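We modelled the chain as a single entity of 277 amino acids. Its sequence is:
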Amino acid sequence: MNACESKRLPRVLFAACLVVAAAHGAARAAEAQYQPRVGQDGKDVIWVPSPEVIVEKMLDMARVTAGDFVIDLGSGDGRNVIGAAKRGARARGVEFNPELVEHARRLAAAAGVAARAEFVQGDMYAADVSPASVLALFLIPDNLRKLMPKFLAMQPGSRIVSNTYEVPGWPSDAAETVRKDCAAFCIVFLYVVPAQVAGSWRTPDGDLVFEQDFQRVSGSYEFNGINLPLENGRLHGTEIRFTVNGVEYTGRVDGDVMAGMAKGRNTSAWKAIRVTN
């Protein structure tokens, strides 16, 4: 006999006991209704969850804080989203399997983060990632290749962390391997979305022409009729640096304007305005 079966309970307590018992019964029934299986087929990839230690490493490398909006494409049981929400961030998981969506919602509620962790049923290739400051992903290279246009259209400085698989052709900004408490899928790659600077930019003294390959930049500086090569060019989000004729330029890109300091024999401010893409 359980406590609710006792007829000696006061009527109010007996009713409350029944409510609690019903809630526990509903929760057990919901869990019994669906439990994901590692390796089960999905729309674009089989489901294999990231080890919990890797979830934390991904969020650490992306420096997720309460000010971030984190999105996981193909979110599975929601562990990346729930982990981000536990750090105070708002987070959204996009998952094609509706049963996994409901399962993730139950787990978020159990973790006490349902208010910050949203799960939607949908196709990850159609998902809008523009609000995200961070993408936390565990996808195979073919998925990542198809999503690359979305990645590069994100706001400069947005961070993408990928478990195990690199974005094809895009050199990572950092990579770390976790050896403790991780038996498989134990490397994380970090990408910082670069500003798009390819094209011509005008300075008071001449024109900068940039060629861009992800975060690497090359090109030339046309100065007083002389064409000087641009060397050691690099972007990190909106931060840019390059060298021309021994002068080191550092600065920040803000839409169609970039500005900063040029350091050679002397240090001076510089500014360039975009002319063409």
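As a brief sanity check on the tokenised model: Helices lie at 11-33, 52-61, 79-86, 98-110, 141-152. The radius of gyration is 25 Å.
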